[in-house]
Design goal:
The chain is an alpha+beta fold and 116 residues long. It has helices at 42-56, 72-80, 109-115; strands at residues 2-8, 11-20, 26-33, 62-68, 84-95, 98-108. α1 links the parallel β3 (26-33) and β4 (62-68).
Length: 116
């Protein structure tokens, strides 16, 4: 697993994580950003840069993100960087005192190349 801090003006505004799944050359990413970073493009820039680095320097085959379906901001971020929604699971994750849906977004290098 790799964890990175996202820093802006000497202040940590978020974090990025990457870990290998059980599948060859496949990773999952996760991210969390402070509210003050919202709507400033910081999350999009950071996650997009991470994805590009994973494909170009680590030569991963596939990147995925599993997100809480209630998190519309995270869904939009995934779509902005070129990920596609691949699955929507119904009430499969216990979070904040309730069963919630989760979504899986994924991408291949070819998806990133099509976006650029």
């Amino acid at each position: 697993m790799l964890s990175l801090a996202v820093v802006n003006d000497s202040k940590v505004i978020g974090d990025l994580s990457v870990w290998y799944t059980g599948m060859k050359d496949s990773v999952e990413i996760g991210y969390c950003f402070a509210n003050e970073a919202s709507l400033k493009g910081c999350a999009t820039d950071a996650v997009s840069s991470l994805v590009k680095m994973l494909f170009s320097e680590f030569h991963v085959h596939r990147i995925q993100a599993t997100i809480d379906a209630r998190n519309k901001t995270s869904q939009k971020l995934c779509e902005r960087i070129g990920m596609r929604k691949e699955a929507h699971f119904i009430k499969d994750y216990w979070s904040k005192g309730e069963w919630t849906d989760s979504m899986v977004y994924g991408m291949l290098l070819s998806d990133l190349e099509l976006k650029n």
